[in-house]
Design brief:
298 residues; mainly beta; 4 helices; 47% strand; globular
Amino acid sequence: MKLRKLVLREARLLRHSFPMWFTSRRPRVATLTLCAAFLLSSAGDATTLVHMSLAQLAQAATVIVRGKVTSQVTRWNAQHTRIFTFTTVSVEETLKGHPSSTVVIQQPGGTIGHFHVLVPGTVHFRPTGQYVLFLEPGPKGRYLPVGMAQGAYRVFSGKTGVARLGLPFGTLPLGEKSQQIGPTPTLGEFDAAITRVLSQPISIPPGTMIPVVIDRTSFRGVGRFGIEGHTLLDLFPSHGVVIPAGSRIEGLAQRVGQQWQIFWNEVTIRGESVRIQATSEQPANTQLLGRSMIAQVR
């Protein structure tokens, strides 16, 4: 009974541990059962995981590295209510960001004594295995794999001795166009594809609706304020673009009659500034600071 409660709790809290990548949208998703099917069928807690392109993985990652697994440990949390597995990887090559020489990857689930919590969709790291990893910030300086298992690609030696990668879904779309790589690209081909998508400018399509909240305002003259905020949800506005929750967004608010006309001009995606033209409206008698709204890209 205690194990059953633990597994159910893990399923219900998984979205909170990995706030990104889960959605109720049907297009372009790979359905994943979070824990044992017989438990979740009674809990009604199935979900879906967005099937991301290489461009989206690269944009959403704070760091992209190739490295080797050096150790792995599983622990209870401080409240002794959840199990987490921590995998240490020695970095051999960096393709994005500025990580230290080792990174620690946190994932839900694992085995401690007689307790075994399996969370399908997590990465099953092999001891001493080599991986290309797309990582986003996690708690206490650790990292989370972007898109769970989609953020880790094991490197292996092919029949000719050339280093290749295995792709979890067989192939991997590059981005907006129909180009794909896979199913077993060479390490050189994969690195080149990452470099290519990282070099392409990010363009957020017109009509995108971005939920935001205003965090700061600065006086710019009578009836005008500079504003800064952050995005509230993870957005996938196209096959080649992702806007992670918490991305910074900036603009200018101007009072026109009985309305605040808000003009958003920039959103920052994992350190990269992207110019946008988006607008919002709010009644002039409301306080802007702390206000939630929708920014619609024009």
